[in-house]
Amino acid sequence: MTSEHKGASGGEPAPIDLRAAEAAEVRRFNRARTARSAEIPEDYTELIADLLNAHGEARVTDIARRLGVTHPTATKAIARLKREGLVTSRPYRGVFLTEAGAAMAERVRARHRLVVDFLLAVGVPREAAETDAEGMEHYVSEKTLSAFRRFLDSQG
């Protein structure tokens, strides 16, 4: 199934493969859904790593407070992280990252820093760059991250 649209030169119509366009749209929506489902584990592992580095422990109370969620919400999210093999916890001892959780936290932190650095380089104020990076870090593709790296490298 094809349709037509004007070519870039404005001349003869160029055929569009609607099935290919629909398939590309499906891939984009699937990628966005996947990113949304990864957002919570990524935010939690990154924060847990930060708390462990800063205080030597990550307590559910501190996690909830820092993420602005209730204690039961944080407990439920941590239970999910346990099932996914990203954290362990012991009563009265806090939450700890597994190797997989630590690797996830490091990947997220690196993406976050790269997005912030790019936004700062194009003139976004620091506070806005940090806030915007919190959302963007979960959705930005590797191709886009590579373009950000190339841009930053070209800036010296």
Write the layout of secondary structure elements.
Elements: E1 2-6, E2 13-17, H1 18-55, H2 60-67, H3 71-83, E3 87-90, E4 94-97, H4 99-121, H5 126-139, H6 142-154
Antiparallel strand pairs: 1-2, 3-4
Helix pairs in contact: 1-2, 1-3, 1-4, 2-3, 4-5, 4-6
Mind explaining what this structure looks like?
This protein has 156 residues and is mainly alpha-helical. The protein has one domain: Winged helix-like DNA-binding domain superfamily/Winged helix DNA-binding domain (Arc Repressor Mutant, subunit A). The chain is 70% helix and 12% strand. It contains six helices and four strands; from the N terminus they run ββαααββααα. It has helices at 18-55, 60-67, 71-83, 99-121, 126-139, 142-154, and strands at 2-6, 13-17, 87-90, 94-97. The chain has a two-stranded antiparallel sheet. Strand 1 and strand 2 (13-17) form a beta hairpin. The radius of gyration is 21 Å and the shape is globular.
Q: Would you tell me the structural class of the helices and strands?
A: mainly alpha
H and E order: EEHHHEEHHH
Low-pLDDT residue intervals, each spanning 5 or more residues = none
Strand content is 5-15%
User: Which fold name corresponds to the CATH topology?
Assistant: Arc Repressor Mutant, subunit A
| Average pLDDT level | 86
Q: What is the share of helical residues?
A: 55-70%
* Global shape: globular
* Radius of gyration over C-alpha positions, nearest whole angstrom: 21 Å
